Amino acid sequence: MSKLVIANFKMNGSKEFIENWAKDFHEEKESNKTIIVALPSLYLSNFKDSNFNLAGQNVSNQSSGAFTSQLSAQMLKDCGAEYCLIGHSEARQYLMETNENIKQKFDQLAQESIQQVLCIGEPLEIKEASKTTDYLLEQLELLSSDQENIIIAYEPIWAIGTGLTPEIEDIQLAVDCIRGRFNKSIKVLYGGSVNSSNAANISAKTDIDGLLVGGASLNPKEFAKIAQLC
Ligand code: PGA
């Protein structure tokens, strides 16, 4: 099974940056991974490169109507998105997203056959209190245990953008907890300060199905290396 490697650009880049990014990415040796690029949504329709799958970074929990500033799942699909992140900790924090909103987003994406990538992860105080698995299970309450075709990205909040990563055993513990919550086989990714120095170790020593890469994905050669090492 081909692993998934997702570049999450967050609110970074420009038209020119993205065009150059794709060129520079291709200069590195090819990997046989499924590469997904979560661009700022405005740029999705201009990004024509069949080597990449496109993802939205978020979606509205409504299908249409008077929701100024929001983008529907159908709009994302029109612009070429096959995947969409939901529940990213930055959206939970800055957009006050709740589990209930995130469930509605999950359903909106399902209606358009866009693959959801549900991000979950614990804050530092929960990790320090050794309550990570309880916290993850609470975040997963929005999904039925019979749900199929799920991709969950485990991203400890304290590891995002900090240069810190959990111990390998702690990643595997979280992954086991997430897999054990579902009756069907699901995909679990790891995200949080992934770079070309830690990608191989995390991939080889856990049974994750891929990586979600933020900051390091903005450097196309670095991201290409991560994709090879995953
Ligand atoms: P990071 O971000 O790789 O910069 O830690 C990961 C993410 O937020 O998806």
Question: What this model shows, in words?
Answer:
The chain is of the alpha/beta class and 230 residues long. The protein has a single domain (4-229), classed as Alpha-Beta Barrel (TIM Barrel). 35% of the residues lie in helices and 17% in strands. It contains 9 helices and 8 strands. Helix 7 (168-180) links the parallel strand 6 (151-154) and strand 7 (187-191). The two termini are 12 Å apart. Residues 8, 155, 160-161, 191-194, 212-216 line the site of 2-phosphoglycolic acid (PGA).
Key terms:
230 residues, alpha/beta, TIM Barrel, eight-stranded parallel β-barrel, 35% helix, 17% strand, binds 2-phosphoglycolic acid
Task: Please give a quick description of this structure.
By secondary structure, the chain is of the alpha/beta class. The chain has helices at residues 15-27, 73-78, 89-94, 99-111, 124-128, 132-139, 168-180, 199-205, 220-229; strands at 4-8, 34-38, 53-56, 81-86, 115-120, 151-154, 187-191, 210-213.
